[in-house]
Design goal:
Elements lengths: L19 E2 L3 E9 L4 E7 L5 E7 L10 H12 L8 E6 L21 E6 L3 E2 H5 L8 H20 L2 E2 L8 E3 L5 E3 L6 E2 L20 H4 L8 H16 L9 H12 L16 H4 L9 H6 L10 H10 L10 H5 L24 H25 L11 H7 L120 H4 L4
Parallel strand pairs: 1-5
Antiparallel strand pairs: 2-3, 3-4, 4-6, 5-6, 7-9, 8-11, 9-10
Bound molecules: adenosine-5'-triphosphate.
The site of adenosine-5'-triphosphate has 26 residues, from strand 2, strand 4, strand 6 and helix 11.
Family: Belongs to the protein kinase superfamily. CMGC Ser/Thr protein kinase family. CDC2/CDKX subfamily.
Protein name: Cyclin-dependent kinase C-1
Keywords: ATP-binding, Kinase, Nucleotide-binding, Phosphoprotein, Serine/threonine-protein kinase, Transferase
Length: 522
């Protein structure tokens, strides 16, 4: 495993990097729990500036500073764009880490913690969209999508693949600005695509078919598949491809996008795992059909949205639309235009971690109320006990802080864990998770890069309500095909016992994206 010298980062030209202690910051509250460790909202004691501190988890790193953190720091140091999170500095904690009881924590040979200091962002997309009653408008969705594509285009022209695009890694502030974050799986690429890269990246639900079929030579198109999944999710109201494991993920993709053949995807039959996952019968692509006639959806996908989605969810990566071309798509240039970020509603801070915690508390309160009710039932003459749902209905955290926008319907359902790459937490489905849990994860912008978001004439249209779910709906789960098109698992797929962090059966997704999990991933 690659490692930096103990206690040394040596990553910077700037002398202040790594030289300040974390005691320059007052920790305010925990806002994230990632594979790396915790993320805190903190205040710089001198300037009072609010920042996010991401603690680099060292406990599993016996051989040095974690390569994931080195990559993230190196890459972020070279990326500077309005739609990419700004890494401000690295700080260290001087002494040995202590737990809440003041006991020294073992296993950290650096005798202190290392933190990345980021600009603070009020929300992540998952946390925001999971707020009860949250409904994004079409101009809001266009605004977020355009910023996502602008940030990603900037990464791609700077030869960086993000490799973990998902809602919880898209941060949004109360000025409506969206930034790409979490570059822990990112890496530089060269345009010749000759290097071999690991295919065990990208959270399962957002992972493209070429990686699921074993490709190790890939490029920016992998991120564009994930963007397509996010785009559809924003309009559809829930994740569109919630596979429980890799084979099921591929099945879901084929059911939606059709089965590939040499005509639609030249070279597909030569892909490393094609024979393992060869569909038993051919299926027609039905992206348009699925999203045009939705029984339960908040927005209908208009013609331009469907066209763009089709081009993002193209099976053959060489034919998939690039970020640059997506920014030119009719969708962004037809009414209603993308909202100006400044005009978007401001919300109370909503990170996936917090919305998850709130939901857990609500669940616990519901259980207590249920228990009390059961205990009291035999005493028929006692007054009925108030249900926790009544309390819930009074608290409407999904409401924007300003009320100038559209009213919001109430809606439950935060998903708290998040599924990651080959194993990991989950907002999405991972076996037995109660409707939540995430899937596992295992030059400049040609006129787009950092400019302001111009309104495109033709005054604001009336915005119908709608947006990303929040109805607690069927997140996660969803099994099998019902089409009988599953891959040929019998032949012993590549996802069997061989993969690090994966159990012998397909439903295993535990783990993290640490070295242990990915081995020598590139
Ligand atoms: N700069 C920031 N401002 C506000 N919140 C942040 C910031 N960076 C991260 N967070 C919150 O912390 C969460 C986890 O952060 P991040 O994804 O960077 O950590 P991670 O350890 O890599 O997590 P994961 O393994 O889930 O990707 C984010 O989803 C977000 O809610």
């Amino acid at each position: 495993m690659a490692a930096a010298g103990p206690g040394q980062l040596n990553l910077d030209e700037s002398p202040s990097w790594g030289s300040r202690g974390v005691d320059c910051f007052e920790k305010l509250e925990q806002i994230g729990e990632g594979t790396y460790g915790q993320v805190f909202m903190a205040k710089e004691t001198g300037t009072k500036e609010i920042v996010a501190l991401k603690k680099i988890r060292m406990d599993n790193e016996r051989e040095g500073f974690p390569i994931t953190a080195i990559r993230e720091i190196k890459i972020l140091k070279k990326l500077h764009h309005q739609n990419v999170i700004n890494l401000k500095e690295i700080v260290t904690s001087p002494g040995p880490e202590r737990d809440e009881q003041g006991k020294q924590i073992d296993g950290n040979k650096y005798k202190g913690g290392i933190y990345m200091v980021f600009e603070y962002m009020d929300h992540d997309l998952t946390g925001l969209s999971d707020r009860p009653g949250m409904r994004f408008t079409i101009p809001q969705i266009k605004c977020y999508m355009r910023q996502l594509l602008t940030g990603l285009h900037y990464c791609h022209i700077n030869q960086v693949l993000h490799r973990d695009i998902k809602g919880s890694n898209l941060l949004i502030d109360n000025h409506g600005i969206l930034k790409l974050a979490d570059f822990g799986l990112a890496r530089s690429f060269s345009n010749d695509h000759n290097a071999h890269l690991t295919n065990r990246v990208i959270t399962l639900w957002y992972r493209p078919p070429e990686l699921l079929l074993g490709s190790t030579q890939y490029g920016p198109a992998v991120d564009m598949w994930s963007v397509g999944c996010i785009f559809a999710e924003l309009l559809f109201g829930k994740p569109i491809l919630p596979g429980k494991n890799e084979p099921e993920q591929l099945t879901k993709i084929f059911e939606l996008c059709g089965t590939p053949d040499e005509l639609s995807w030249p070279g597909v039959t030569k892909m490393p795992w094609y024979n393992n996952f060869k569909p038993s019968r051919s299926i027609k692509r039905r992206v348009k059909e699925k999203f045009v006639s939705l029984p339960v959806c908040y927005y209908s996908f208009d013609r331009h949205a469907l066209d763009l989605l089709e081009r993002m969810l193209t099976l053959d990566p060489s034919q998939r639309i690039s970020a640059k071309d997506a920014l030119d798509a009719e969708y962004f240039w037809t009414d209603p235009p993308p909202a100006d970020p400044q005009t978007l509603p401001k919300y109370e801070s909503s990170h996936e971690f917090q919305t998850k915690k709130r939901r857990q508390q609500q669940r616990q309160a519901d259980e207590v109320a249920k228990r009390q009710k059961t205990q009291h039932q035999p005493h028929a003459r006692l007054p009925p006990i108030q249900q926790s749902g009544q309390l819930h209905s009074q608290i409407r955290p999904g409401q924007p802080m300003n009320t100038s926008h559209h009213s919001m319907a109430a809606g439950p359902s935060h998903n708290y864990g998040k599924p990651r790459g080959p194993g990991g937490p989950n907002r999405y489905p991972q076996g037995g998770n109660q409707g939540g849990g995430y899937p596992n994860r295992g030059g400049q912008g040609g006129g787009y890069s950092s400019g302001p978001y111009s309104q495109q004439g033709r005054g604001p249209p009336p915005y119908p309500g709608g947006g990303m779910g929040g109805t607690g709906g069927p997140r996660g789960g969803g099994s099998g095909s019902g089409y009988g098109v599953g891959p040929n698992y019998q032949q012993g797929g590549p996802y069997g016992a061989s993969g690090p962090g994966r159990g012998p059966n397909y439903s295993q997704q535990g783990g993290s994206r640490s070295q242990q999990q990915y081995g020598n991933w590139q």
